[in-house]
Structure formats: structure tokens, C-alpha cells
Design brief:
heterodimer, A: 397 residues, alpha/beta, Arc Repressor Mutant, subunit A, 3 domains, five-stranded parallel beta sheet, 9 strands, 51% helix, globular, disordered N terminus, B: alpha+beta, SH3 type barrels, Alpha-Beta Plaits, five-stranded antiparallel beta sheet, three-stranded antiparallel beta sheet, 8 helices, 53% helix
Chain lengths: 397, 274
């Protein structure tokens, strides 16, 4: 009976993975070792420092250009653009990218606001003060770039005042063009409770990345990782020679194996950059290569570890069994993208002790992580968590 | 009538003569297997319903009475086929015997069983529904042959015979759905700012982790001589959380009322115990 139950449970796990577009390609190589935490940390930092994917940059530039031109020429055109991305995406980086573009003369509002203020009740006052100062000092026609909306509210009875204020302040100021950003889940939630879509109709949803876009985006990390694609090519059938009629994409792949890997990565990650990066990171492992004694003696332990990092087959995490309380916690966490544990307790309406003890197993299982900006969902689990919550009656998109 | 009964009894007696040890062992085996099948069904369906996505939970739970009825039917047919040659006259005699026997000896039981069979199709309640029957309110956790079992909010199991549906009103909160309306009343002073209170209550509901924001949130007012009654009507994502949901709404609303100094009605009609 127990075996039967296990088998049935296995079907559900398999269904979950397929639904999320996640399937393991091959049996993992047993000789490979997991990366050391230090190397994982270094690679994570390198991922965090990657520039925005080029596809996103092109989309942002064209959409903002178009929206600003329209706003300048037509008095009835919207005076805002909301950038909407999946909750795993680093919205601060999008904000910084907009500010770095010299031709838009944009001004940052609360540029030091990377996370929600310690006291959420001050959010509305701080925003009001900053907006009034910007309106008084700024030249008309300027772009004003705001902190992401998910950092401007807390899901509690008096935690939405800043959204109400922003909504009215932006609607009433046609002298400036407002660039906002928000994660998809928070956008949906804010529309349900503050009717934000009625006020901010002009939105830009960050496009999904395909295999080629992912490969180009992750290219700067190649120096740290030994790719098996060139070696694998030797045992694969020889790739077709590039022809005149081939597209640029087809010509640029190093091998069919590389194309297969990145296409599978893009599918498994749902085209979301941070999810893809997390899955890419889990695909890495140590594998000692044969070296001469002289070369080996020259390397330090750390550099030796670094040089032995090899990309293996796509590996996928398995979402542990979630309780109803876990689901409420995860939804609240993703809704706010990053959040302090005390704020998380407030949004759940539970005590700090209760939430801390509840978050602990999820931390242990690596489903959530403590990042510098607070608790965050591990992007590698994002699609699995989203599928799980959706099936359990949560509104996630 | 009496002669007919005697004739039927004779026919039953004729059937009993066919009893052999072999057939009795087969019958006992069938009964044992039926019991085992019930156990497996109960456990499997209960386990499955708790492990599938929430949206399928109630459908799976509600399949239990039908599965049990099917197993029972198969068992009865197998048993009858062991002892009877199902000719029309034998069947008539058997039915007459059972009807008379049940009519005299198990009147209430028969009433419950027939009410349970009718309820399977009328569906005043199903497994997973939150119902109020008489003074009892809770989730239907089991649908048996004779009655249902309710799990109340204070974690007690209450068994209620099906024949209650003949005479008692059955209040069903969710009728096979996950969501059900939850209404929470607040009694405030006549001096309280009504718009402010409505706004607070809406926000309290909108920011509760349990609320299903796809469903409407409403605040209704009733004017009483001693207070203004605000009834917050909203839906949780899962009706199982009803008690926690009410507590969450009340706790957070009261905290905001206190913070915003919203007045409660003065105490009245207090009977001081001597």
C-alpha cells in the first residue's frame, strides 16, 4: 500500500515538473562534485553584475522613446510607463539602466531606495516629500524614475497609502513623464485593491528570452566555466557548415549541443533571465581534468576549484511538499519580491516567532534565501512555486 | 396479506436450504473483501484529496459516497448470486421480506439510508462542504450509509443521520466550491465616521492573506438603537480557513479602530451579578 501511495505521489511530482516546463535531460554524472559555496557565491555575484539582456534593453529603449515622444506631442497621451517583470527580475537594475541613458534627461526619485523603509508607515510621507521636491525643482518635460512599486507598499491595512498617493499624484502631473516598475504579482494585487490599471494604462511587460538571447547574456561568465560543447562536438555528428541562407543565429551557435542546451534552458526557465541564471548555476559542478604535476602545483586551492567548474546537463530542483501556511508565506514573499522577516510577519498577520520558525525549513531547503535586501525566493524554484500556488487558488498572474 | 407473507417466508426458507459451507465461506469472503475495499477507498480517496491541487480536492472527496455505493452494490449482487437464482418470484419474495423486516425493525435506519440515497442525487450536502444542520456547523468529512460526519471548528466530530434532511433545514455555505461567503459583524458607536470605517474594513479584507480577491468584498450597514452594525462580507480562498480568517479580520480591524480612535457603543443592558 505504501509503495502504491509513493508511486501515485511520484506521478504528481512528475506532472508538476512537466507543467513548469521542466524535464531532466539525462542522468547526472555521478563523478561530478557539487560546487563549493565560495564558488557559488562568486558566480552569483557575477550573475548579479551582468548587464540587462540586450533584448530587454532594446525593448525598453524603443518603448520609452515611443511613449515619451507621444506624451510630448499629444497632451492626451499617457504621462507614464510602467515596466512589469516577473518577481525574480531585478527591477532596480532596470531603473538604473533608464537613469544611465543620457538622452532622456531623467531624474531619479529616492535613488537610495533599494528596499522598503524600515518603518512602512513612513513610505507615503517620504514619497510625497520627494515628489513635491522633484516637481518644484525639476524642469518640465523631465523623466522621473520612481522606485519599484513593490517596494512602496506592505500588504497590511495601512500599508497601501503610498500607492493611493502615487496614483493620484502622477495622474495630476502632466509636466513630467513618470517611469515606474513593478513585479507582475504585485501589479495584479495592486490592481485588485487600488485599481492601478485604471490609472496607469501604459505598461511594458519585459519580454521572455529565447535560447540565443540567454547565451549572449550569459556570455561574460564563460571565462569561469569550462563548456563541454566544443568537446562534445567531436563525438556528435559534424555540424552543418554555415551557409549564406542561414540566419545569424544559426551561424553563431558553437555546436548543435550548445543550441540544444540553451534552448532547453530557455524553455525550462520560461524565458525569465534570473530563473535561467539560477538553473544554469545548478548545472555547474566540479570535475577534475587531467593536468601535469607542474601546472597543478602552481594553482592555489581556490583557483584549482574555479578552473574545474564544468557545465553539465540541466539539473532541476525539486519543490518540497508545501503546507497551506508555506503557500501563504511564499505568496507574500514573492508579492513583495524582497522583504524583512518582521514585515513578512506583518503581512501574514502572524507573530515574528511563528513566521521565523515557519521560514526556517524553507531556508534549509533552499527554496527561499536571505539576500542583502531581505528574504527572497530562490529563482530556481520560481516556476514550481508559481505552478503550485496557481493550482491552489492563488492569483499569481 | 398475511398469507402472502407466509408464502414469501416459505420461499426464503427454501432458499436457506441451499446453504452450504462452501457458499458461506464465499459469502464471508465477499463481506471481508467489501470491508477491505471500504477501508482502501476511504484511505486512498482521503489521501488523494489532500495531495492533489486544491481545486480538485472537493471533487475527489465527493466521489467517496458513490464509490462506496458502487462497492456495496457489487457486493450485494455477488452475495445474492451465491444464494439465489434471481427469478422474478425469488426477487419479489426477498424484497417483500426485507421491506417488511426493515419496516418493522429498522424504521429509522431505513429512513436514514433512503434519505442518504436521495441526498446523493439531490446533494443538499457533499463531502468537503461546510454545512449547518440544526445547531451543528462544520465541514462534512464523511458520507456514510446512515449519516454524515461533521468536523466542527472546535475539532469535534459530529455524526448526523441522513433522515434529518426530511425535517431540518440544511444550510450549505459553499455547495461544492472552495470559496464561501464569510460575514463578520462589527458594532460601533453612532458617532463613528461611516465612510472611514467602510474604507478600513475593505482594506482589512483586501490585505488578509486568506482573502480571494477575485470575489467581491462588501460592507453592509444596519442601524440598531444602540450601535451601527458594519457587516464585512468577503470570501476566503479556502473555506477550511474560515475560523482563522474571521479571527484575522477581527483582530486587524480592531487594531486599526484602536489606532484611529474609532468609538465603540457604550455598554448597555449590563446585568451586574450580585
Amino acid at each position: 500500500m505504501r509503495n502504491l501511495f509513493k508511486q501515485v505521489q511520484g506521478w504528481f511530482v512528475a506532472t508538476t515538473l512537466v507543467e513548469a516546463g521542466v524535464m531532466e535531460t539525462e542522468e547526472p554524472d555521478r563523478s561530478a562534485r557539487r560546487l563549493s559555496p565560495a564558488i557559488v557565491q562568486k558566480l552569483s555575484l557575477a550573475i548579479a553584475e551582468l548587464p540587462l539582456p540586450q533584448v530587454h534593453q532594446i525593448q525598453l529603449r524603443s518603448q520609452i522613446d515611443q511613449a515619451v515622444t507621444q506624451w510630448r506631442s499629444d497632451p492626451k497621451a499617457p504621462n507614464h510607463l510602467v515596466i512589469i517583470a516577473d518577481p525574480t527580475e531585478p527591477l532596480e537594475k532596470y531603473r538604473r539602466w533608464v537613469l544611465d541613458q543620457p538622452d532622456w534627461a531623467s531624474v531619479a526619485l529616492l535613488s537610495d531606495w533599494h528596499r522598503r523603509p524600515q518603518d512602512y508607515t513612513t513610505i507615503a510621507d517620504k514619497l510625497a516629500q520627494a515628489i513635491e521636491t522633484a516637481q518644484a525643482a525639476g524642469e518640465p518635460g523631465q523623466l522621473v524614475v520612481l522606485p519599484s512599486l513593490d517596494q512602496c507598499f506592505l500588504r497590511c491595512a495601512d500599508g497601501l497609502a503610498a500607492i493611493d498617493y502615487l496614483r493620484d499624484a502622477i495622474a495630476g502631473d502632466r509636466h513630467h513623464f513618470w517611469v515606474l516598475s513593478c513585479n507582475q504579482w504585485a501589479w495584479q494585487y495592486l490592481d485588485s485593491v487600488c485599481h492601478t490599471r485604471a490609472y496607469f494604462q501604459q505598461t511594458l511587460t519585459i519580454p521572455k528570452l529565447d535560447g540565443w538571447a540567454l547565451r549572449r547574456w550569459l556570455l561574460p561568465l564563460n571565462a569561469n566555466v569550462e563548456y563541454p560543447f566544443a568537446t562534445a562536438e567531436q563525438v556528435q555528428p559534424a555540424p552543418k557548415p554555415p551557409q549564406q541562407s542561414d540566419s545569424e543565429t544559426a551561424e553563431a551557435w558553437a555546436s548543435e549541443l550548445e543550441e540544444q542546451y540553451f534552448t532547453a534552458l530557455a524553455t525550462a526557465a520560461g524565458g525569465i533571465s534570473q530563473v535561467a541564471a539560477a538553473l544554469w548555476l545548478t548545472s555547474l559542478c566540479h570535475q577534475e581534468s587531467e593536468k601535469t604535476a607542474e601546472t597543478a602545483a602552481q594553482e592555489t586551492v581556490e583557483s584549482r576549484e574555479y578552473h574545474s567548474v564544468v557545465l553539465k546537463d540541466l539539473a532541476f530542483p525539486e519543490l518540497p511538499s508545501l503546507t497551506a501556511d508555506d503557500r501563504y508565506l511564499l505568496f507574500s514573499l514573492v508579492l513583495h519580491r524582497s522583504i524583512d522577516i518582521s514585515d513578512l510577519a506583518l503581512t501574514l498577520g502572524d507573530s515574528l516567532e511563528q513566521v521565523t520558525s515557519q521560514a526556517w525549513p524553507l531556508l534549509q531547503q533552499d527554496v527561499i534565501a536571505i539576500a542583502p535586501l531581505g528574504y527572497q525566493l530562490n529563482p530556481a524554484y520560481y516556476l514550481l512555486v508559481r505552478a503550485n500556488l496557481r493550482r491552489n487558488n492563488f492569483v499569481v498572474d | 396479506m398475511f398469507e402472502e407473507l407466509i408464502e414469501s417466508t416459505d420461499k426464503i426458507a427454501a432458499l436457506v436450504q441451499r446453504l452450504t459451507l462452501d457458499r458461506v465461506i464465499q459469502a464471508v469472503s465477499i463481506l471481508g473483501l467489501t470491508y477491505l475495499a471500504f477501508l482502501i477507498l476511504d484511505n486512498t480517496i482521503s489521501w488523494l484529496s489532500e495531495h492533489v491541487p486544491l481545486q480538485f480536492r472537493l471533487s475527489i472527496k465527493q466521489s467517496l459516497p458513490f464509490c462506496r455505493a458502487l462497492v456495496l452494490l457489487v457486493a450485494i449482487v455477488l452475495l445474492l448470486s451465491r444464494f439465489l437464482q434471481l427469478s422474478p418470484s425469488s426477487l419479489l419474495a426477498l424484497i417483500a421480506f426485507f421491506l417488511v423486516g426493515l419496516g418493522f425493525a429498522f424504521k429509522d435506519y431505513a429512513s436514514s439510508v433512503s434519505a442518504g440515497l436521495i441526498s446523493l442525487f439531490e446533494q443538499p450536502y457533499q463531502v468537503g462542504d461546510h454545512v449547518k444542520i440544526g445547531e451543528q456547523y462544520g465541514e462534512v468529512t464523511r458520507y456514510g450509509l446512515r449519516g454524515i460526519r461533521l468536523r466542527t471548528s472546535d475539532d469535534r466530530d459530529v455524526t448526523i443521520p441522513h433522515n434529518y434532511v426530511w425535517t431540518q433545514p440544511v444550510v450549505n455555505s459553499n455547495r461544492g466550491k472552495l470559496e464561501a461567503l464569510v460575514a463578520v459583524s462589527f458594532y460601533l458607536s453612532h458617532h463613528a465616521d461611516v465612510n472611514q470605517v467602510i474604507q478600513i474594513l475593505r482594506r482589512v479584507a483586501q490585505t488578509s492573506k486568506y482573502t480571494d480577491l477575485r470575489c467581491p468584498i462588501a460592507v453592509e450597514l444596519v442601524e440598531n438603537p444602540e450601535s451601527t452594525q458594519f457587516s464585512l462580507e468577503t470570501y476566503p480562498m479556502d473555506i477550511r480557513d474560515e475560523t482563522s480568517y474571521r479571527t484575522d479580520l477581527i483582530r486587524r480591524a480592531k487594531a486599526i479602530f484602536k489606532q484611529q480612535a474609532i468609538a465603540y457603543p457604550p455598554p448597555f443592558n449590563l446585568k451586574i451579578q450580585g
